[in-house]
Write a structure and sequence with these properties.
mainly beta, ten-stranded antiparallel β-sheet, 4% helix
Length: 183
């Protein structure tokens, strides 16, 4: 029987951002990854579950009150999380307004399936603050003192931008999380 844990979404998997490189608009498709973890401990007073990941490490996650069947979770159950991410970069035209938006949604699976998909999307405008063609790498600065540096594999795309250019960066992450009881 499958049930969803929306709270586990960002905790079960911690994938780094994929390599950034771009032209006018560049889409970077992240890998789809599925991870299974075993329920090792349950703390009912705090609604937390400790999971053992495949690498043998443990993570404790809070299960929100919106998960109605928390009392059905048993030690030994398996949590399966399938994670996907995508990044789109778009070189902004001069004078275009900066953006900083975020949205999230949880969608039920169709056909009577108890699974849920949770997705988040964030778009920000960032300024290119450094380019190192020798590495090759690029550094961005965005709202709230956000900074990010990354190696760039597409050197032709890197050659099309310069320090001071503004870029809209949109991250989309989605995860389907289910609980397989007694597995």
């Amino acid at each position: 029987m499958n049930r969803v844990f929306a709270a586990i979404i960002a905790v079960v998997l911690a994938l780094p951002l994929v390599t950034i490189a771009f032209a006018q608009t560049k889409e970077i498709t992240g890998e789809k990854k599925t991870v299974k973890a075993t329920v090792e401990a349950i703390e009912t007073s705090s609604r937390s579950v400790t999971l053992k990941k495949p690498d043998g490490t443990y993570v404790t996650v809070a299960v929100p009150a919106t998960v109605k069947r928390f009392d059905s979770i048993k030690i030994g159950d398996t949590v399966t999380a399938t994670y996907y991410e995508n990044i789109v970069l778009r070189l902004k035209e001069k004078g275009e307004k900066d953006v900083d938006t975020a949205s999230a949604a949880v969608t039920a699976a169709g056909g009577g399936n108890a699974g849920r998909t949770a997705a988040t999307q964030r778009t920000i405008t960032a300024t290119i603050t450094a380019i190192d063609p020798k590495v090759p790498s690029i550094t961005f600065k965005g709202p709230n003192n956000w900074t990010y540096s990354s190696r760039v594999e597409d050197t032709k795309a890197l050659a099309k931008v310069k320090v001071g250019d503004k870029v809209d960066i949109t991250w989309t992450e989605a995860m389907l999380v289910s609980l397989d009881e007694g597995k």
